[in-house]
Structure formats: C-alpha cells, structure tokens
Write the structure tokens for this entry.
Amino acid sequence: MKTFLTSFIIFFLSMQLWAQSANYFNDLTRWKEFFHTAEPYGEYFHNYTSVKRIQGDTTIGSFQYKKVYSKKLRYDYYLPSNPSNPNYNYVGGTTIYNDSLYAFIRQDLLKVYYNVNGVDSLLYDFDIQVGDTITRENVTLLNDYEGFKVDSITDFYVQNELRHIFHVHSLNSWSWFDHSYSYLIEGIGTYGGLLAPLSFDFEWDSYDLSCYSIDNVNFFNTLNDNSTIQNCSYNLAVNKLVNEFDFSVSPNPTSKILELTIPIEIDIQDLTLTDLSGRTFNLDYNQVGEKITVDIEKFQSGIYILRLKTELNQMVESKITKI
C-alpha cells in the first residue's frame, strides 16, 4: 500500500510539473490555416489561406498577453457550368490582407485566454478527459448548435513537451454526418487552427490546420481529403502568400501625410479609407515610382482601414491612426 501511494504521489507531481512546464506560445510559433466555403448554392467559392504568428508581448489590465499577427489571402471563384442565377457572372479574384495585429492570447497552465475589446475570455481548457463533454464553458469558439464529447486522447511532442490530441464527435443532430469527428489539439487550437471554431466539415465548408511550426520546424498538420494545401515539409518555411506583394505605410500614426511603398510594377485601380462605422472614402493620391503620397488631413482623428486595390483585383489593407 505504501509503495502504491508513493508511486501515485510521484505520478501526480510529475503530471503537475508537466502541466506547468508546457509552453504553448513564443515568438517563433506559427500556424498556417486553410478554410474553404461556398455560397449561395455551391457555385460561388471562397478559399482562405492565412498565416498567424506570435510576436511580442503586451499588458492588458493585470495580465500579460502574447500578440497574434495574421496575414491572409482570399481567392474567390465560381462554377459557370451550373449557375443558379443567370445574372451571377462573378469571375473571381484575389484579395490580400497584409500582416497585421489580429488578437491577444495568454496561457495559464492548461487554459488559454484571449482578449477582445478589453474583455478577458476563456478560449480553451485543455484539462479534459475521455468522456468529457465540450461546451462553451471550456471551448469559447464553439458554434451555438454544436456540442462534442471526447472519445479518445492521443499524444505527440512539441520540442520534447508532451501534448494531447482530443478526438471528439458531435452530439447534435448532425452526428449522422460522415465528418462529424474533429480534434482539439493542446496548445494549438482546433482542427482549423488557433482561432477557428471547433467544428467539422459540412457540405462545402472545410477547415484545415495545414501546418503548426516553431522556429520553422513543423510539428503538426491535420489535412483532410478535400484540402488543396500540400503536406508541409519538416523544415517548414512560411513564405509570402501567393500573389502577395510588399506594402508599407508610414508614418503611422499621422496627422496629415501618408506615404505608401509598393512595387513599381503594381498598377493601382483605387485607394480607399474606411472608418469604424463602415463609411468608405475614395482617396486622391500622387505616385512617383514606388512611392505614393496621400493627404488625409481633412479626416477626423480616429482609426481607419486603408485599402489598395490593383488592376489584377488584388487587395491589400493596413490599419492606420489619424491624429
């Protein structure tokens, strides 16, 4: 009995030590994610490829958070062979969202929190076991109509740290569907990535965490059969997204003049400024080579989204502050 008790105490202490030592986030962590969806009747498709990364710290209230940055490419297309609407003649295009601050997250042992509009909320609770039901109490990003139960737990390692993969199935009315199984992945997120909902593929919607890497070494990927993303190499290099081009804005914040830098071969279709209420204003600009200057002195102080659209239907955007 004494031997059993001693062994149990050692096991318990080792588990506590593991729980406290696993470090989920550092400045070399990246997620490469893919999302595919369609509307309205399966002819108009959207493919999103995004790269999220950790860079830097910030303090909000009494907590210290890691900053999450994201860049994204959206490709839109439709199937003209079977249009549900004869007037639906959209021919597709690419939209590029430049690297920008996306979210704030923090770790507290096996729990992950995120901050939205100054409110601290539980994102994931990885302290779950086989048979547990996953609800909004332990996974915030859960669709209203879904609930999941943990079927099994498998292990993998990230830089010699033990992590768990929670294999779950849906408890709702969709449970008959072939793809009603999904994953919750410790320290990484869901089947779709860091801030993707815990969900399963349904009809034209599919999520994929195509790569999770630290210091360019890939530790995890969950590609489903429908994904167009190829398997990542072990030495993962998260390069620029397809068709992305260099785009910078300075000074930011500014009271008057913005200076944009783009490749000289890029042809601009229009340049707009959108305020937080959704109002969009077309901007006049002067371009000399790769330098573009814009005068925004007439606009009120505040936060705006600056969008640049090219002749090739590419779009990049940047958040700016007018002072």
In short: The first helix runs from residue 2 to 21. The helical segments are 2-21.
